[in-house]
Structures are given as structure tokens and as C-alpha cells.
Amino acid sequence: MATPFQEGEERAKLRAAMIAILSDIHANREALSACLEHADRAGATRFIFLGDYVGYGADPAWCLRTVMDRIAHGAVAILGNHDQAILTGPRGMTGRAAAAIAWTREQLSPDAAAFLKTLPMEHAEGDTLYVHADASAPEEWRYVTNAEEARRSFEGNPARVTICGHVHVPRLFGLTAADKCTAFAPTHDSPIPLSRARRWLAVMGSVGQPRDGDPAACYALLDEETAEIRWMRVPYDVETAAAKIRRAGLPESLATRLFSGT
């Protein structure tokens, strides 16, 4: 029978391997706060942020400060297309996205912009690659929404496991040894083993602006010890987040879509 000390060592080992992965925060303070608190309670000891900290929402400065604080305590963060738009302008964005970027640029300090300039396009750990969009060409900000686009990503990078965001809809793609690409729609809090018999591409969904019909914030937990990933859905104070968007004078649709998750 294991002693309490041995059981504590085993728990610590599991906690040390638990990574919380958050993408597409989009200046939603209420959603980010809820996800970070949820991940802390779940035992996450590492955090990886996949970009788009700003845009759409009304709390860009607070969200960036929070991510920067997590980085100071060992977290990893990469660049998203909305973050890049703060630096280069909203090229190719929709009207409401461009309006949000223009407003956001007025809210951020020079230090915040300097921080965004330091962020890399991707981050690799072992056989896992973290990136905001399609890993075959991260700088082009292409979406991964179906098996064909997933195959493009598989063929364009050597990682066994690729983890991305950008789409705002959680998905999991697998590439078999027979070169068959399969697609899954993960369900809440269901552990999925990332078998070494396949290559995997996990699309995180969005913390701050989900678009899969579920308004709850979305992030994932990756257990490196068991090689399992779980998508988590976290309710948050949508009313407050939407009210802030309206008070800021941002497009009304950016507030109303939070209630439907579309």
C-alpha cells in the first residue's frame, strides 16, 4: 500500500505535467479570469497561450497584463493575427474586426505594444508544436476547419502533435499510419488519448469568443504524463463582458454574439 508521502509524490508528478492551453482570448477579461481560475483548480502548473489576446473585447490592457504576469511565472505565449494587427494595422480583416483593432490601439501602452513585438510565431516542445493558425505557413494566418486543411498542416510541419487556435471552434484531427485523416468534435471534459500510432492536430476553440454555438469559454488541458487532452467549457459573466463592449462604443454585434457563441 502506498504511503501518504508516496501518494503525494505521485500527485505532484501528475500536476507538473498538466498544461493549460488557452487561445483567442480577445480582450475578454471575464472569460480569461474564469478559465485561469478553472485551470488552477484543475491542477495546471504550466500555461501556454496561443495568441489573439486583443481584438473584439473591451479589456485588452488587462488581458495583456495578465498574460505577461503568467509569462513571468513560466508561461509561454505566441503571436496571433489580431496581436500582429496592433503592430501593422488590420490588413484583410472584416469591418468590425478592424474597428476593434483601431479602438484597441488607442487603449494600449507602449509597453504593451513592445511586448507583442517579442512574441514568436510558434513554439516547439519535444514532438509538439504550438502555433496560432495553420502550422504549414503560420505567417499566412490560414484556418484549419476540415480534414483537407488539417492535411495541409500535417504535410507542412514534422510535429507528431500540433496544437493551434484561430478558428474559435474546438476540433481534433488524426492522421493514421495509412494516411487517412479523421476529424472529431471533442466533448466537454472527456479525456482523449493522443496515441503514438497517429499524428494529431488539436484546434483549441476560443476563450473569449466561442463560435461553436456554446457561449461558455473554451480551453484545453494536456496531460503529458498520460498523453491525454481534454477540452474544458467554463461559464463566465457574459452580461458584464457584453456591457463593457457596448460602453466602449465597439460594434454591437461583438456584444450580442457572446450570448449565442456564434
Short description:
InterPro entries: Ap4A_hydrolase, Calcineurin-like_PHP_lpxH, Metallo-depent_PP-like, Pesterase_MJ0912. 37% of the residues lie in helices and 20% in strands. It has 9 helices and 12 strands.
Give keywords.
262 residues, Purple Acid Phosphatase, chain A, domain 2, 37% helix, Pesterase_MJ0912
Q: Can you walk me through this structure?
A:
It comes from Roseomonas indoligenes. Belongs to the metallophosphoesterase superfamily. YfcE family. One of its GO terms (molecular function) is phosphatase activity. Pfam families: Metallophos_2. By secondary structure, this protein is an alpha/beta fold. The protein has helices spanning 4-16, 29-42, 60-72, 81-88, 95-107, 110-117, 147-156, 238-247, 252-260, and strands at residues 18-22, 46-49, 76-77, 122-125, 128-131, 161-164, 171-175, 181-184, 192-193, 199-203, 217-223, 228-234. A 6-stranded mixed beta sheet has the order 3-2-1-11-12-9. Strand 5 (128-131), helix 7 and strand 6 form a beta-alpha-beta unit. Helix 8 (238-247) packs antiparallel against helix 9. It is globular, with a radius of gyration of 18 Å. Residues 1-16 have low confidence and may be disordered.
